[in-house]
Each structure stands twice: as structure tokens, then as C-alpha cells.
């Protein structure tokens, strides 16, 4: 065999040949897979339609190849020539990352070169990037700096059917940018309310560079912007109407039949029912992976634990079941696990949030278990309270979930509720913009130069009351003036920070209270989920460890203690070591202290990025030292809208106009102490209203730091 001979003669060359061979095989496999996708036969037609139409709607079932293929077709057809970028927005960070990786692989390029992704706190793109996957929120932020989105020749708004707030705002913005661009290509400066001269953030007086951007945009003749809206829901009408009767193209899907099973009775404990179903499938059904839809990280973790425990009790040969979690805050490396095939003879059971409904396509699924629930935001416009609640899915969601079982062959879908319940479900989900706090959206729009929020051309208008309530909140935070304009400098600074308005306000105030160091850590730690972790077999130790960090005044300082504990450890052990070594040491420290190392790493990354932001804004980072009172006062001044007071019965009542009754979540260090007056960061509604991340404050501070609000109350 010639290959063997050459291997003996020249080890090096043959090793190279082998890698080349396997590379070629892989490329061939990828090419074949690409060609077999339903969208492949529509390539020519799609490219033509994009040429002909400035706005196009592309509808196709999940998995037909829209997200991964269409940008590649357009690149091949020359849409990214001349240094232009094809931008693809995703509502979810995970989707932006996984898809970019996949497409880079399909193109045979290194991620970050021709194909890259950019999400908040993580940008892998470069000047070479021609296809850029990003979150819709990120593109909105880019529009602040470049109102014409001049680098883009095409913008694909993907997963538009999800109708997240950011998608809806982006659609509105794109409508305006399109107008700007078509006017600019005629050399006519725009006269729109998105006039870049109105753009507050661009009004960065210190940098000539930003000023020149406007110049460049105005003088350059930009080609019209191509807008493509992609959706997995068959109803393209709403998008078509919004874009003045834009054309819709349907991609023929390929879906195998999926049998549906319902329970006879409503389930009292859907997690238990899901577990029973998982093992029933595992024991009785043919090979094929299982996908279970759960509502969040905690639920997923507990189901995973139960599966592992149960497997331990089974005989060796029955243990071939591998639980794999996927949810938004799971670190990327872990998320990638769901795409890896299980070892031979092992059945994967993927425990997912509704992230797996349409955003990511996982091959190999034959069985879907759908308890029919989803965690969703709700907003009470009267009280101004936004909370996360578990609600029933819509019919459209149930159909999408079922579809996940029929991608590679016929499948089965187990709905953990009776058939009669299905018939009662609403047809489709209410767009998020109609059930969330709008403060963030308003801040963004104002920064983009849109002053008339009520008059803004939303695809679905939020209620007037919701807008007014959110405006009121921004006013109370000092972000807007009496004339509803973005205030200078607070409002402008708040819009500049990629954070929730209240967190941005906390950083700005911390600058005044001389506790910016502490607040930066707090905001970073609040931006990640679950810092502490408590393995079942080591509950005592993990509790003791958590206690060692806890601060008597509350959870915020406790989080700071954890963050600083890690830094101190690194400093003491070996101050100057390589990044790799640092990571390893950090992981060890986390393990010893029952801290989730991935969450902490994420928090450290976020910390350094926000730190850069505030430094660019000219803030100097000072610490309040040992005395935490200024820090707690600063918390009161920033989160006064989330202040609560103890009632005689030991529960709490929110002091804001909402006056809702709340309870301290058992995870808080103040759970037992129950101080008289507190501020909190999060309200979670399960069977009762739980508040999380809490700090004790002095009620007098509230009058001192927010007299306009608390004077009104009395
Ligand atoms: O966007 P759409 O749901 O129409 O499909 P897609 O995300 O472009 O996926 C097309 C194909 O690529 C599917 O068969 C996926 O299994 C595959 N894919 C993959 O293998 N890995 C990814 N990270 C994303 C997609
Ligand atoms: Mg897709």
C-alpha cells in the first residue's frame, strides 16, 4: 500500500497527508449535508428574490437551513463584496455563538475571520468578517454609533417569530434605517425623527472620530439596505404588512410524522411526570435521543440530578442514558455538548429551556417531552412590576416543540397534559413588548433620537399605560427630563452602558458615593446566574462555605466577598502567572469553596468589560474601604423603586406604588434575619412573590436619596 510505504519513509509527510485526507472527508460530508438541506434547492430563487426586493420575508420550518445557509448563499452571490457585512441577528446569545461556529466550520474558516459572532461582552469579529452573527440587542447598540448601519449590505433578522422586545425594536429601527439609506443613496439628507444629528450618543463632543462618522455617512452614497426577516412560524402576514406588503418566500420543509400522546389527567407534578416518561422511553422505545422542555436552570439541574441518582440504582446495562443540559446561561463549552453525538449505544436526554424550541437545532432527537410550560416575563402596567412567571405555552409553541421529534425520521411527542387542555391554549404567544417593562427600550430609542415613543411605529404597540409607567420610572431615575428628553449627563451615560437602567444608575451613583469598585463587582456578579452551588452529597459543607462569605447586611456585600475572596487567593498564591494557570487555580478555589467556577469566570469577564466602559466615561474607580454604609446607601439610591418594608406578619410589602406583598427567598442571607427595611434586585413569582438579592437599608436613607419619590408617597 503506497500510503504505508510513504509512512515508513517519511513520517511527517504522511501525517500531513492523513490530516489532509480527514479534512477532505469532513469537507465532503459537510458539503453533502449542506446540499441535502431543504433550503438548498431554493438557493437560486432566494438570491434572485433578495436582488429584486429590498425587504423579503423568508419562512421555513426549523432546521430547513435558513440561519446557516442563506448568509452563505448571499456571500457567494457577492452581497458582501467591497468590504460589506451580512449581519444576522438572533434573539439568543447561544444561537449567535453556536451558529457562527457551525458556519465558520462549513466555510472552512477560522471563527472570527470571515465568519464571526458578536454578543454583549464577547466579540469575535474582525475587519475580515463578512458574515456576522449577533444578538438583536447588539445591533441596536451599534446603531447608536452608526445610525445608517453603513457597514451592512444585508441585515437578516432571524427568529423573528419569537417577537422578543429587542427584535420588535430592531424591526422598527430597520424600517427607519432603510428610509435613511435610500434617501442617502439619492444624496438627500434625511428629515426623519431618527436624524443622526439628533443622536445623543453620537454627540460625543470629545471625539472627532464620531463626528466624522456622520460626515462620512452623509456624503457617502450608501446602497439601499437589504432587510430579510426570517421566521419559523408560517404566518408571515404580520411582518409583510409591517413592511408595506413585503414579499414572503416559503421554504418547503421536510418533516416526518410525529405521534402525539397526551396524559389522561392533568399532572400535579410535571417534573415527576417528565422523569417517569424519560425512563419509560429509555426502557421501552427504540434508539433515539430525548428532548425535554423545562422552564429554567434550577429545574434542569434538579431533573439532571434525579436522572443521575436513579441511574445509580439501575443495573449496569440499563444505565446507558446521558443527561445533557442546555440553557442560556450555561457556558458555551457546556452548551456545545448537546451537539455531540452520545457514545455508541447510549441515549442522550437533552434537558432544555425553550431555547431548543427553534433557536438551536439538535440532531438525533426522536422523542420530545413537553410539559407545556415556559418561563415568561409579565408586566403589570398599573403597578410597574415586571416578573418572571411560569405560564402555559401557546399552540404555536407546542407545535414547534413537537416538530423537534420529526427532523431525522418519524418521532413521538409526549405532552404532559390532557388533550382538552391543548385546545384551550392561546394560538400564539403575546409579543414580549406587550408584557415587559419598557424603561430599557425607551432609553434605547431616546438615545437613537426617537423622542415620541408613543408615536413610534412599533409592529405591535405596547399599551399607553405601560409606556407612561416606564417613562415615569426613567424620570425617577433621573434619566429623562421634564420634557421627556434624555438628561445630560445621567440619561446619556445610562444609555451608553449595556446594562439595565437601574444597574447603570447604580454605577453612575457609585461614582458619586465613592464606591464604584464595590458597585462594579456587584453589577458583574448580578449579571450571572447562581454563584453558589450545593452538591446534594455535600450540603453541609457547601452551606458552611456559603456562610463564610455571608455578610450580615445582605446579599450584595456577600457577592462582593466571594469576588474578592477569589482575587485575594490569586494574589496570595502566586501573583504573576499565566492566564491558564490562573484559570486552573481559580477553578480549584471555586471547588474548595463551593462556588460555580463558570459563573465566577463569567462575572470576572463582565467586570473587566464594564470597568472599561465606565473608565471611558471618565469615572475613576474608588473604593469605600471597610465602611460599607456608603455602598448600601448607594444601593438604596439606585434601587429605591425596589424597596420593601416588613409587615407585622413578617412578610414584606413593596414601598413603590405597586405595594405588592413579597417574601424573602430562602437563598438570601437575610432570610432568617428579616430586617425592617430592604431593597431587592429580583422578583420571581412562583406560588408566591419571592424577592432575591437583598440588602438591609435604613428607611431614612430613602427619604434622603429619593425625596421626590418618597415625599410623594407620604
Ligand atoms: O435556521 P433553520 O432552523 O432553518 O436551520 P439551521 O439552523 O440553518 O440548521 C440547518 C442544519 O444545520 C440542521 O440540520 C442542523 O442540524 C445543522 N446545524 C448543526 O449541525 N450545528 C449547528 N450549530 C447549527 C445547525
Ligand atoms: Mg434558524
UniProtKB/TrEMBL annotation:
Annotated PROSITE patterns: DEAH_ATP_HELICASE, HELICASE_ATP_BIND_1, HELICASE_CTER
Basic and acidic residues compositional bias, start-end: 13-22
GO cellular component, alphabetical, reads: nucleolus
Q: Which GO terms describe its molecular function?
A: ATP binding; double-stranded RNA binding; hydrolase activity; RNA helicase activity
Q: Which organism is it from?
A: Kalanchoe fedtschenkoi
Q: Which family does it belong to?
A: Belongs to the DEAD box helicase family. DEAH subfamily.
What is the catalytic activity of this protein? ATP + H2O = ADP + phosphate + H(+)
GO BP term, example: positive regulation of transcription by RNA polymerase I
Which keywords are on file for this protein? Answer: ATP-binding, Helicase, Hydrolase, Nucleotide-binding
Segments forming domain Helicase ATP-binding:
47-252
Q: What is this protein called?
A: RNA helicase
This protein's record includes keyword Hydrolase: yes
Q: Which InterPro entries match?
A: DEAD-box_helicase_OB_fold, DEAD/DEAH_box_helicase_dom, DNA/RNA_helicase_DEAH_CS, HA2_WH, Helicase-assoc_dom, Helicase_ATP-bd, Helicase_C-like, P-loop_NTPase
The UniProt annotation puts the region (Disordered) at 1-22
Which segments constitute the Helicase C-terminal domain? 277-449
Q: What EC number(s) are associated with this protein in UniProt?
A: 3.6.4.13
Tell me the enzyme class. hydrolase
Amino acid at each position: 500500500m503506497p500510503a504505508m510505504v510513504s509512512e515508513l519513509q517519511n513520517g511527517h509527510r504522511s501525517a500531513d497527508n492523513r490530516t489532509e485526507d480527514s479534512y477532505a472527508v469532513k469537507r465532503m460530508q459537510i458539503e453533502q449535508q449542506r446540499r441535502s438541506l431543504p433550503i438548498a434547492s431554493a438557493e437560486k430563487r432566494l438570491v434572485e428574490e433578495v436582488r429584486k426586493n429590498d425587504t423579503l420575508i423568508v419562512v421555513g420550518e426549523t432546521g430547513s437551513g435558513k440561519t446557516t445557509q442563506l448568509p452563505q448563499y448571499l456571500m457567494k452571490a457577492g452581497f458582501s463584496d467591497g468590504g460589506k457585512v451580512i449581519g444576522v441577528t438572533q434573539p439568543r446569545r447561544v444561537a449567535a455563538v453556536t451558529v457562527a461556529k457551525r458556519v465558520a466550520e462549513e466555510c472552512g474558516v477560522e471563527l472570527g475571520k470571515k465568519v464571526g459572532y458578536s454578543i454583549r461582552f464577547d466579540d469575535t469579529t474582525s475587519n475580515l468578517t463578512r458574515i456576522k452573527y449577533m444578538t438583536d440587542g447588539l445591533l441596536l447598540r451599534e446603531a447608536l454609533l452608526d445610525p445608517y448601519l453603513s457597514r451592512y449590505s444585508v441585515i437578516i433578522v432571524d427568529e423573528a417569530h419569537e417577537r422578543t422586545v429587542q427584535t420588535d425594536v430592531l424591526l422598527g429601527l430597520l424600517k427607519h434605517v432603510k428610509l435613511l439609506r435610500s434617501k442617502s443613496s439619492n444624496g438627500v439628507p434625511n428629515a426623519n425623527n431618527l436624524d443622526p444629528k439628533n443622536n445623543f450618543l453620537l454627540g460625543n463632543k470629545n471625539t472627532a472620530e464620531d463626528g466624522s462618522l456622520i460626515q462620512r455617512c452623509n456624503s457617502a452614497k450608501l446602497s439601499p439596505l437589504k432587510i430579510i426577516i426570517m421566521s419559523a412560524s408560517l404566518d408571515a402576514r404580520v411582518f409583510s404588512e409591517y413592511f408595506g406588503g413585503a414579499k414572503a418566500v416559503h421554504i418547503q420543509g421536510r418533516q416526518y410524522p410525529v405521534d402525539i400522546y397526551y396524559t389522561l389527567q392533568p399532572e400535579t407534578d410535571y417534573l415527576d411526570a417528565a422523569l417517569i416518561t424519560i425512563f419509560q422511553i429509555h426502557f421501552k422505545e427504540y434508539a433515539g435521543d430525548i428532548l425535554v422542555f423545562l422552564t429554567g436552570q434550577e429545574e434542569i439541574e434538579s431533573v439532571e440530578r434525579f436522572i443521575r441518582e436513579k441511574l445509580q440504582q439501575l443495573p449496569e446495562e440499563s444505565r446507558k442514558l446521558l443527561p445533557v443540559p442546555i440553557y442560556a446561561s450555561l457556558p458555551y463549552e457546556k452548551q456545545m455538548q448537546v451537539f455531540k453525538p452520545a457514545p455508541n449505544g447510549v441515549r442522550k436526554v437533552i434537558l432544555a429551556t425553550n431555547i431548543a424550541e427553534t433557536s438551536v437545532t439538535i440532531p438525533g432527537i426522536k422523542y420530545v417531552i413537553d410539559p407545556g410550560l415556559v418561563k415568561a416575563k409579565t408586566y403589570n402596567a398599573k403597578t410597574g412590576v415586571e416578573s418572571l412567571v411560569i405560564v402555559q405555552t401557546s399552540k404555536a409553541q407546542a407545535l414547534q416543540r413537537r416538530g423537534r421529534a420529526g427532523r431525522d425520521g418519524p418521532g413521538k411527542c409526549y405532552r404532559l397534559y390532557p388533550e382538552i387542555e391543548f385546545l384551550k391554549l392561546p394560538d400564539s404567544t403575546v409579543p414580549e413588548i406587550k408584557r415587559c417593562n419598557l424603561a430599557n427600550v425607551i432609553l434605547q430609542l431616546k438615545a437613537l433620537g426617537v423622542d415620541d415613543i408613543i408615536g413610534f411605529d412599533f409592529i405591535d404597540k405596547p399599551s399607553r399605560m405601560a409606556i407612561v409607567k416606564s417613562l415615569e420610572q426613567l424620570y425617577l431615575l433621573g434619566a429623562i427630563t421634564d420634557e421627556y428628553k434624555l438628561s445630560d449627563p445621567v440619561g446619556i451615560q445610562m444609555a451608553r452602558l449595556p446594562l439595565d437602567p437601574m444597574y447603570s444608575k447604580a454605577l453612575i451613583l457609585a461614582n458619586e458615593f465613592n464606591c464604584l469598585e464595590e458597585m462594579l463587582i456587584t453589577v458583574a456578579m448580578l449579571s450571572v446566574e447562581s454563584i453558589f452551588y450545593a452538591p446534594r452529597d455535600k450540603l453541609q459543607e457547601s452551606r458552611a462555605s456559603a456562610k463564610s462569605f455571608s455578610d450580615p447586611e445582605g446579599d450584595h456585600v456577600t457577592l462582593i466577598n466571594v469576588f474578592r475572596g477569589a482575587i485575594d487567593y490569586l494574589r496570595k498564591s502566586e501573583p504573576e502567572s499565566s492566564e491558564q494557570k490562573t484559570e486552573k487555580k481559580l477553578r480549584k478555589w471555586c471547588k474548595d469553596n463551593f462556588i460555580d467556577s463558570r459563573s465566577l469566570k463569567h462575572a470576572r469577564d463582565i467586570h473587566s468589560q464594564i470597568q472599561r466602559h465606565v473608565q471611558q466615561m471618565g469615572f475613576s474607580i474608588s473604593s469605600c474601604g471597610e465602611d460599607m454604609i456608603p455602598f448600601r446607601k448607594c444601593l438604596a439610591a439606585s434601587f429605591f423603586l425596589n424597596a420593601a418594608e416588613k409587615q407585622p406578619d413578617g412578610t414584606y410589602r413593596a414601598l413603590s406604588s405597586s405595594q405588592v406583598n413579597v417574601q424573602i427567598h430562602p437563598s438570601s442571607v437575610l432570610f432568617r434575619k428579616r430586617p425592617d427595611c430592604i431593597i431587592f434586585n429580583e422578583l420571581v413569582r412562583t406560588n408566591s412573590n419571592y424577592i432575591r438579592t437583598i440588602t438591609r437599608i435604613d428607611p431614612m436613607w430613602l427619604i434622603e436619596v429619593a425625596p421626590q419619590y418618597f415625599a410623594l408617597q407620604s
